[in-house]
UniProtKB/TrEMBL annotation:
Name of the protein this chain belongs to: Phosphoribosylformylglycinamidine cyclo-ligase
Gene Ontology CC terms: cytosol
One Gene Ontology term of the molecular function aspect: phosphoribosylamine-glycine ligase activity
Source species of the chain: Pelotomaculum thermopropionicum (strain DSM 13744 / JCM 10971 / SI)
Keyword Chaperone appears in the UniProt entry: no
Catalytic activity: 2-formamido-N(1)-(5-O-phospho-beta-D-ribosyl)acetamidine + ATP = 5-amino-1-(5-phospho-beta-D-ribosyl)imidazole + ADP + phosphate + H(+)
Top-rank taxon, per record: Bacteria
Boundaries of every PurM-like N-terminal domain copy: 61-166
Gene3D superfamilies with a match to the protein in the record: PurM-like C-terminal domain, PurM-like, N-terminal domain
Functional pathway: Purine metabolism; IMP biosynthesis via de novo pathway; 5-amino-1-(5-phospho-D-ribosyl)imidazole from N(2)-formyl-N(1)-(5-phospho-D-ribosyl)glycinamide: step 2/2
Gene assigned in the entry: PurM
């Protein structure tokens, strides 16, 4: 009909298919850089294909984990820096499956954006690829969804899914933990990806810092500190499992030491944690002071400088720490298992036995 308006397109509704295609082109090399020999298909298919080598295992058990970056993403948006949060997405998932003794095999990411900007998507996925390289797993697929009207034009969310494998007879589940076992802590790089709602409330609202505020005790800006990527512990821990008896591993995420260590303890056991046995990064002191946050609340919200805790027999603790040191990994004897009911008891001026 003459004069009739042109019909709407998907782009008119805010979804740019061509921009999505361009994003795929931009991320292709980064994704391919993560591929292991078991990967059977390039990106762009409907599903990722991974051929598990049956000759390597007697009774393989697949271990899976899913997680997101959380409100740390808000800091990335404020700084307009997006190339590191992908590392966090990978770390949160692979560290979770590592604690069962699993080798991460492959990863898939889910990215939802308010507006498809190919270069921004490429930066985010480059971080995911970097995380996969650090973990030794393949990025074999994912989803990038443009969701106008649901997210703001500059907003996005990022989550991921990891699958790993462990021999059935080598699953780490904490069942063999007994009183007298020692707890060794591996240091975190900072906040990792947990507690950001409280951290942002204290630092960006109560204290009035901006992401570009330089803080002397941190040696960098608030934004740089908050965007420090989560450590990935795979390459430090997996080789160790071939030489020592590791009875339990805990990824210290939301809930801190207080909530996460009890998740691996069998009935009738508790853990005594010796405060002062490891250096606490200054960002935690800053949050506690600026927000008037109690020590107990800090310990049940943040990792407080310990990103991974492992439980080993008392007779192996010193050798485990020496092995880690030889590999360039710092570690601290932070506690011991005691009789009790699956709790964490904090003590000062003890430990090191």
């Amino acid at each position: 009909m003459p004069g009739r308006n042109k019909g709407l397109t998907y782009a008119d509704a805010g979804v740019d298919i061509e921009a999505g295609n361009q994003a795929v082109r931009l991320i292709r090399d980064a994704v391919r850089s993560t591929f292991r020999p078991e990967v059977l298909a390039d990106i762009g298919g409907f599903g990722g294909l991974f051929a598990l080598d049956p000759a390597r295992y007697k009774e393989p058990v697949l271990v899976s984990g899913a997680d997101g970056v959380g409100t740390k993403l808000r800091v990335a948006m404020l700084m307009d820096r997006h190339d590191t949060v992908g590392i966090d997405a990978v770390a949160m998932c692979v560290n979770d499956i590592l604690v069962h003794g699993a080798e991460p095999l492959f990863f898939l990411d889910y990215l939802a954006v308010g507006r498809m900007v190919p270069e921004k998507v490429a930066a985010i996925v480059s971080g995911v690829a970097e995380g996969c390289r650090r973990a030794g797993c393949a990025l074999i697929g994912g989803e990038t969804a443009e969701m106008p009207g649901f997210y703001g034009p500059e907003e996005y969310d990022l989550a991921g899914f990891a699958v790993g494998v462990v021999e059935r007879g080598r699953i780490i589940d904490g069942r063999s933990i007994v009183p007298g076992d020692r707890v060794i802590g591996l240091p975190s790089s900072g906040l990792h990806s947990n507690g950001y709602s409280l951290a942002r409330k204290v630092l960006l609202e109560m204290a009035g810092y901006g992401v570009d505020t330089y803080v002397e005790r941190l040696g960098r800006t608030i934004g740089e500190e908050l965007l420090e990527p989560t450590r990935i512990y795979v390459k430090a821990v997996l080789p160790l499992l071939n030489h020592f008896t590791v009875k339990g591993l805990a990824h210290i995420t939301g809930g801190g030491l207080t909530e996460n260590i009890p998740r691996i303890l069998p009935p009738g056991t508790a853990v005594n944690i010796f405060l002062g046995k490891w250096p606490v990064p200054p960002v935690f002191e800053l949050i506690g002071e600026a927000g008037g946050v109690s020590e107990a609340e800090m310990l049940r919200t943040f990792n407080m400088g310990i990103g991974l805790a492992m439980v080993v027999p008392a007779g192996q603790a010193e050798a485990v720490m020496a092995y880690l040191a030889a590999a360039g990994e710092k570690s601290y004897l932070i506690g011991e298992v005691a009789e009790g009911e699956s709790g964490v008891n904090y003590m000062r001026g003890k430990g090191g036995k």
